[in-house]
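Sequence only, no structure available. Ideas?
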Amino acid sequence: MSLKPCNCSAFESMSTTPWIIELGKQIVAEILSRLDWIGIPTEDGSTDRNQKTSPFRLLDYACGEGVISRGIFKYVDEAWGIDLSAGMVKMFNQRAATFEIPDGKKMFAVQGDLLASSSAEDGSSNSHGTSFAGKEWFDFDVAIMSMALHHVHSPEDAVKKLVERVKEGSSVMFIDWVSGTTVRPEPCEHGKAVHELPGAHTTTREGFTKDEMEKILIDAGCEDVGFAEAKELSHLDFGEQRIWKRLFFAKGKKAKQGVNKG
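Reply:
I predicted one. Tokens follow.
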């Protein structure tokens, strides 16, 4: 049920390419414009952060080098990242070390596969040696999985696994491509053809529709589900082609026990 095996070194090298950097900035900007919709409290939002009795914790799954954690860190107290790639985790922690983190807050990442069944069910370590069975890996205030769901064998099971990790009434959000929005060919000057891309063989699907994501979230035990599309198209530059696609942001709140999800 975990993420398909990936060429981690290739993804690590791609993290510094201009279009990846631009995509990360776009994702962060979209999240910041939707904080209240997602369920992340702000100073002037509907939730008073001063009334909280415990740190507001973000679980950043498939965190990469930490673009989301750093981009929204102003609005959380703790950012806990997980990624399959040791190189990405190293970059995340290196950048966190140079990031201005106020006293009492923290930001870090570990290598691991949260979706591996053993990590939550029997407490054993996954193939990367990290166990996620401890209580500290549950009861997050928000969990975000960005640009990884289309690499997962079973998106339904992946969403359920992430929902397990948040508190009742707290939010999960998934960011990925809207199915059927790919706009092809526009000339590009460098790189490889799309079918030769690092990681192209690890994708399981092109994207997701609104109906698909809302059903997946409801079936995973969420209520107050929502689906929003990015304001602008995103471009992916690969050699002779520039591909345009549209991002989506799908969210839901973990229903309280005994609440009818329908």
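The mean pLDDT is 83.
Hope that gets you unstuck.
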